[in-house]
Design a protein that fits this description.
By secondary structure, the protein is an alpha/beta fold. The protein has two domains: 12-272, Spore Coat Polysaccharide Biosynthesis Protein SpsA, Chain A (Alpha-Beta Complex), CATH 3.90.550.10; 277-357, no CATH class. 42% of the residues lie in helices and 15% in strands. It has helices spanning 22-35, 53-66, 86-95, 118-128, 155-164, 173-180, 186-196, 220-225, 240-250, 268-272, 277-306, 310-315, 322-331, 333-337, and strands at 12-18, 40-46, 72-79, 104-108, 112-113, 132-138, 202-203, 215-219, 254-261, 263-264. α2 links the parallel β2 (40-46) and β3 (72-79).
């Protein structure tokens, strides 16, 4: 792995909301304590878990009152008592630390497996380009290839993999990671998947692209200027990270993906808690569209002016436009393209396209 960047007086606030999925939370914290090599303050916000997570966190508080893991300089747990949603939990954590205490924050899910030296390496990326507002880690995604198979590692492919090992019913993070790595030693697998994929920082065009905040390092000053980490009253789940990336880009700052790999188990809290994933994500998409409708239509007009076949040749095919494809599906094709200049564009409305396009 590349040399790590270290600056001991520049601690990062790591924020992890939890909601059930206790075994995934345990793996997240185990690998966090084991592999984090840059000074950090950890803030956990529990959204009213009912599976023993609260008791586990209270025990952890007592353990850490005696001794912190290496590189940890602070720790606090906030108990909401009810599920306030991912965005609201992050806002609460964000506001719990004085602005002057930390320049950077890392927004994390509770279903991760961190990799050796992950934070110092991501901090190195941020320090090398102070214009970056949001920096995501490499993770399972359609644009990330598995080093053993060469296949994409998006959500659909992950579900197929879990099904092949009969792991989709009672989710077990250790078993899932073992299956994903083909039982390879974790640090060596990380080296392999990083070498197999893009080897340097990848800048995004936002919108349409965005950084998924399952593990995202952010510059607090830039994010505050863009309107805050998340908007108030967003809802329980979905599309809040898209809104964050687009707001950061709107003030002229950058969004990017690091080449540092952090494994994400995807929707652990939602699936373990038997929440209707599709419904919740649809609610978030609808909210996103209402906030950004004028901007989206302006982008569509511009793209059509440059390429009358933009819809078929670009939007339906290129990865960075997939959120526009999803919004078109959720909103409805006719409404999505309403008031967009269509003459000479070749657009014909059709309802025959399936969700498999995404």
């Amino acid at each position: 792995m590349p040399n790590s960047y270290k600056e001991t007086n520049d601690a990062v606030q790591i924020i992890i909301p939890t909601w059930n999925a206790l075994e995934f939370t345990k793996m997240t914290l185990k690998t966090l304590f084991q592999y984090t090599d840059h000074s950090y303050h950890l803030t956990i916000v529990d959204n009213g878990s009912e599976d023993g997570t609260g008791d586990y966190l209270k025990e952890l508080e007592m353990e850490l009152a005696v001794q912190f893991p290496e590189h940890m300089i602070g720790f606090n747990v906030i108990y909401n008592g009810e599920n306030k949603g991912y965005a609201e939990a992050n806002i609460i954590a964000w506001n719990s630390i004085p602005r002057e205490d930390t320049r950077y924050a890392c927004l994390c899910n509770n279903d991760l497996a961190f990799s050796p030296n992950w934070l110092s390496r991501m901090m190195g990326d941020m320090k090398r380009d102070p214009e970056i507002g949001v920096l995501g880690s490499m993770r399972p995604a359609p644009f990330v290839k598995h080093p053993h198979t060469g296949s994409a590692t998006g959500e659909k492919q992950m579900q197929e993999m879990l099904s092949s090992f009969n792991l989709t019913e009672d989710r077990d993070p250790e078993a899932e990671l073992k299956a994903y790595t083909n039982d390879q030693d974790w640090p060596s697998f990380v080296d392999e998947i990083e070498a197999y994929n893009y080897g340097e920082i990848m800048y995004l065009e936002s919108p349409p692209a965005f950084v998924q905040t399952c593990c995202a390092l952010v510059d607090r000053k830039i994010v505050e200027t863009a309107g805050g980490v998340y908007r108030e009253n967003w809802g329980k789940y979905g599309a809040d990270d898209i809104d964050l990336s687009w707001r950061v880009a709107e003030i002229g700052k950058k969004t990017a993906m690091s080449s540092v790999y952090v494994h994400h188990h995807v929707h652990a809290s939602i699936s373990v808690s038997e929440l209707d994933v599709e419904t919740k994500l649809k609610e978030g998409d609808l909210h996103l569209y209402e906030l950004w409708k004028d901007k989206i239509k302006g982008i569509l007009r511009k793209e059509l002016e440059q390429n009358p076949n933009f819809k078929e040749e670009v939007m339906y095919k290129e990865m960075e436009w997939f959120i526009f494809r999803i919004l078109e599906h959720v909103i409805g094709e006719e409404e999505f393209w309403k008031d967009v200049e269509l003459k000479n564009s070749g657009i014909e409305f059709s309802s025959s396209r399936s969700k498999e396009t995404f």
